[in-house]
Write a structure and sequence with these properties.
Length: 259
């Protein structure tokens, strides 16, 4: 296995301030699925707790796992600020052994698309199935990059996407992004630049990173889930309970381990 993509440094520090996942109103969707199948929850790729912290605050039995210690540290700080606790595990979503099973396993934030090989996907789904209780559900979110696919372009240079509010010292974070797409291999390479700015908007420090995502069409994802023993598979579009349409940007798959 190659090393997993790991959020660190300025990317981890600025995640809650400039990451575009905040554009997706997905928490109520996940919360409803958990309520419909109550019990323990495992949040894979929990990061800074974008989903996990809200669940813990509601008193849900939730465990988080992530490969970034820096992101887990931020998550722990957020839990402590709320007077809440949740087990946080440093680990790889492809190979983990928690010695317990869960009623729901979430893979939110399109995290599964950082797994670029079929071997990595198989390893992740095998680990998930092993950690599901009979009748438990696996919830996997995926992203289809229609904006890039329909642009007619192969690549786009860096452009400024976001800037955070200034902190008490007047400093802020800025995020830039460019991309290159391979329509045949179904790969999207993101070029990310993170900057820390002073009160005058001058760059204090900067980091440049590359992230590659893959995407799969619905038939392929359903086949993968079925291959690993999951059944009763449902597909939802854009974090609603409607089926996906031809131009749906986010598709969520929910599969169950037979009871």
């Amino acid at each position: 296995m190659d090393k997993p993509y790991k959020y660190s440094g300025m990317e981890a520090a600025s995640y809650d301030l400039v990451d575009e996942l905040s554009d997706f109103d997905d928490y109520p969707f996940y919360r409803f699925l958990i309520e419909a199948s109550p019990g323990s929850v495992l949040d894979l790729g929990c990061g800074t707790g974008r989903i996990l912290v809200g669940l813990a605050e509601e008193g849900i039995d939730v465990t988080g796992l992530d490969v970034s210690r820096e992101m887990l540290d931020i998550c722990e700080e957020k839990l402590a600020a709320l007077g809440r606790e949740a087990p946080l595990v440093y680990g790889d979503i492809r190979s983990f052994d928690l010695s317990e099973t869960f009623d729901t396993i979430l893979i939110p934030g399109f995290t599964i698309q950082l797994l670029l090989s079929s071997e990595d996907l198989d390893a992740c789904l095998k680990s998930c199935t092993r950690h599901l209780k009979p009748g438990g559900q696996l919830v996997v979110s995926t992203y289809l990059p229609w904006e890039m696919l329909e642009s007619g372009l192969k690549r786009k240079p860096l452009e400024k996407k976001r800037e955070s509010d200034r902190d008490t010292s007047g400093e802020s974070f800025a995020a830039w992004q460019g991309w290159e797409i391979d329509r045949i291999e179904q790969r999207l390479q993101l070029s990310n630049r993170f900057q820390k700015l002073d009160s005058a908007g001058e760059v204090l420090s900067e980091e440049n990173l590359t992230m590659t995502l893959c995407w799969h069409l619905p038939y392929d994802m359903q086949r993968l889930l079925q291959k690993h023993g999951l059944g009763d598979i449902s597909l939802y579009g854009d974090f609603t309970f409607d089926p996906p349409e031809a131009d749906t940007e986010a598709i969520v798959y929910v599969g169950r381990r037979p009871g």
